Amino acid sequence: MRVWFAGGGTGGHLYPGLAIARALVARRPACRPYFVGAMRGIEREVLPSTEFPHLLLDLHPLYRARAWENWRTLRGAVAAWRALGRLAAAERPAVVVGTGGYASGLALAYAAANRIPYVLQEQNSHPGLTMRVFARWAREIYLGFPEAGGTLGAAAARVVDTGNPIDPPPAPRPGRAVARQHWGFADDDRPVLLAFGGSQGARAINETLDKWIASGRLPEGLNVIWATGKGSFDQYAARESERVRVRPYLAPMSAAYAATDIALARAGAMGTAELVAWGVPALLVPLPTSAAGHQRINAEALERAGAAVHLPQAELTVDRLDTEVRALLADAGMRDRLAAGARRRARPDAARVIADRVLALVDGEVSAGR
After folding, report:
1. Would you tell me how many other CB atoms lie within 10 Å of the CB of residue 330?
2. What kind of fold does domain 176-345 have according to CATH?
3. Distance between terminal CA atoms of the chain?
4. Domains of the chain by residue range
5. Which residues, in sequence order, are CB contacts of 69 under 8 Å at separation 6+?
6. 109-133 pLDDT, tens per residue?
7. 2-167+349-367, CATH topology level
């Protein structure tokens, strides 16, 4: 059974598809995922290292600010449509799973035009343009944030609150002492702050954290795990010390989450899904330029749910960071309430739930003779 996965451009659109694909294969080994993405997206780097076959197309987003460049979008779409036709002629997919981004739009359009059933997985609390356009014909829509359902109009009747598909925390989870020993911290009883901004890092978080550490105001008894992003690591590597671990990126993230008491992070869909799955109290600093302000909406939704503290980037100063971290360190009750709120939002089994629903949809199509 062939299943197309359409999505990418960024890791936030690609990694959910990979998690669902692996869950599908685990549930039904005869399932054969096939990824369709863009040559210019992150999938160009990631998919060759996975176990899945894939097709990278010359896809482009809509150039809103430079409309004259949309000839690239049109030319790429025509060539990609033909390539999808050849791919479908070789083996028609039973279903298409769309995970968003400009890299998914053409494959979803092809599915709609050729009566191939498709489902969508929306990661954020505010659906992107591709999701809003194609939601009306989707068989089901799997939401990372339940708040997204209110923006989908008539399609809201077909939404399912699954959460975002991530690699769930292991069972049993490693103990805090063991996790902290992994990082080589001298005192296993000290709380740990985890700071990260996604695979590319976050300049605002990096700069503020750097100034905070350089000022000597790092609270006594606090250890730090800091993922700078690959491009910024050399700039901040010298901050490594007995109490601070500086890394370009964290892989696996579970080794950091297991040791963490408080997080300072962006409000991307997948990062926040992992934080709530681990029950980590978080200070969320949304990227101000995220599409349609979706990171701000994510942070506000989690703050309303009692799962995080929303800290706008415009307010992220050394003084504010120092105040917020010290308040959390001094108030164990606040940390416990945020952790409990995070666990209420957690959907660590989302990939399995989505895989089961996709398989049920395909089985229903087969039994109906379609």
Report:
1. 10
2. Rossmann fold (3.40.50)
3. 14
4. 2-167+349-367, 176-345
5. 63
6. 999 999 999 999 999 998 988 899 9
7. Rossmann fold (3.40.50)
